[in-house]
Amino acid sequence: MKPSRSFASDNNAGVHSEILKAIVRVNEGHVVGYGADPYTASAVGKFREHFGPDAEVFFVFNGTGANVLSLQSLTRSYQAVICSAAAHIYTDECGAPERFTGCKLIPITPEQGKIDVELVRHSYHGIGDEHHVQPKVISITQSTENGTVYQPEEIRALANFAHQHEMYLHLDGARIANAAAALGQTLRAATRDLGVDVLSFGGTKNGIMGGEAVVYFRPELSHDFLFWRKQSMQLASKMRFIAAQMEALLDNNLWLSNASHSNRMARLLDKEVRQIPGVEVIYPVEANGVFARIPQTAIAQLQERYFFYIWDEEESVVRWMCSFDTTEDDVRDFARFVGEVVSQAAVTR
User: Fold this and answer.
1) How far is residue 249's CA from residue 20's CA, in Å, rounded to a whole number?
2) How far apart are CA 222 and CA 235, in angstroms?
3) Which domains does the chain have, with CATH numbers?
4) pTM for the full model?
5) What is the spatial distance between Cα 192 and Cα 180, in angstroms, rounded to a whole number?
6) Secondary structure of the chain in HEC code, one letter for each residue
7) Quick check: 186 and 180 in contact, CB under 8 A?
8) Predicted local distance difference test score (pLDDT) of residue 111
9) Which of 3, 214, 249, 286 could form a cystine bridge with 149, CB 3.0-4.6 A?
10) CB neighbours (10 Å) of residue 307?
11) What is the pLDDT of residue 349?
């Protein structure tokens, strides 16, 4: 019998009980749709408690929508977005950022998923030349697609470079809660205070049913967002149900307890699998993901019982993600099974 929880993605986890309660609480009577309701206003107020009283907050359906709309609001079609070659906007959004912004994405290949100022500087050229796209946005992911975490000074340096060159810094925060928890930061300290201009705030990977938010720390940048959101089919008619989830996530630090738990489970998994001969953890485990090189012959057998993704087929690297509902027993049972399968693969090789 397959276990009920896998290590494929924090998207695969269920919904936290407090989030479900919040949905039920707002499921009474009729309210005006499209966000003109008291629940949405209350949720926006909760965001402003965390990010600052002048933050502009807009709810959308998903992470791709949040990223695309953030970038669309910051660019024109002759401009470009500099990002990691592993960035979700570059590898996993089916070309949506380029289609809807009209911009070119300029990928750079960093170590351990983190771009830095020197890498960005090499991609910043052709300024004022009508034959070249004009870099306008640096987009980073926190925590990164490799499970690593930017240190505050690294983000601040990128923000300073962006602003000195009349660019913006966008942060894909699908797992911003995991990063802030890992660094011991508040959400504001992890974003706005470091110079981030626009944040795609993730909730789906941290215990909510569905919904993300776009948060502007420079309100003037959000001037046309209402129209972009509608035109991009990201305007929810029954927005109160997204808003209620977000407010519950930010209330009583549920965001922090969920993220801290999934991070802790990843550290435990890291500790357990490092003891297995034939398993090599290739990136520092700084958030809620473990990336490991294992014998290629072991992958299919492991996947028969536990679903997870292959990160790099040529290098035989797999990705194991922990979630808010991952238990210590889940981790130890999985690590034990990995040990059994990898040892068998070594014998039969």
Assistant:
1) 11
2) 15
3) 17-253 (3.40.640.10), 259-348 (3.90.1150.10)
4) 0.96
5) 12
6) CCCCCCCCCHHHCCCCHHHHHHHHHCCCCCCCCCCCCHHHHHHHHHHHHHHCCCCEEEEECCHHHHHHHHHHHHCCCCEEEEEECCCHHHHCCCCHHHHHHCCEEEEECCECCECCHHHHHHHCCCCCCCCCCEEEEEEEECCCCCCCCCCHHHHHHHHHHHHHCCCEEEEEECCHHHHHHHHCCCCCCCCHHHCCCEEEEECHHHCCCCCEEEEECCHHHHCCHHHHHHHCCCCCCCCHHHHHHHHHHHHHHHHHHHHHHHHHHHHHHHHHHCCCCCCEECCCCCCCEEEEECCHHHHHHHHHHCCCEEEECCCCEEEEECCCCCCHHHHHHHHHHHHHHHHHHHHHC
7) yes
8) 85
9) 286
10) 14
11) 58
* The pLDDT value given to residue 170: 98
Q: Quote the CA–CA distance of 103 and 249 in Å, as a whole number.
A: 33
Residue at 182: amino acid letter: A
Give pLDDT, residue 327.
Answer: 98
Q: Each residue of 80-100: b (16+ CB within 10 Å) or e?
A: bbbbbebbbbbeebeebbbeb
Our measurement of the distance from residue 168's CA atom to the centroid of its chain's CA atoms, rounded to an integer in Å, reads: 19
What parts of the chain have a pLDDT lower than 50?
none
Beta bridge partners of 138: 82, 169
Segment 304-317, tens digit of pLDDT: 999 999 999 999 99
What does the alpha-carbon distance between residue 288 and residue 10 come to, in Å, rounded to a whole number? 9
Q: What is the pLDDT of residue 160?
A: 98
- Nearest-angstrom CA–CA distance, 113 and 149: 9
**Considering only CA atoms, which of 243, 321, 280, 267 is closest in space to residue 39?**
243
Asked if residue 51 lies in contact with residue 185, where contact means CB atoms within 8 angstroms, the answer is no
End-to-end Cα distance, the chain = 27
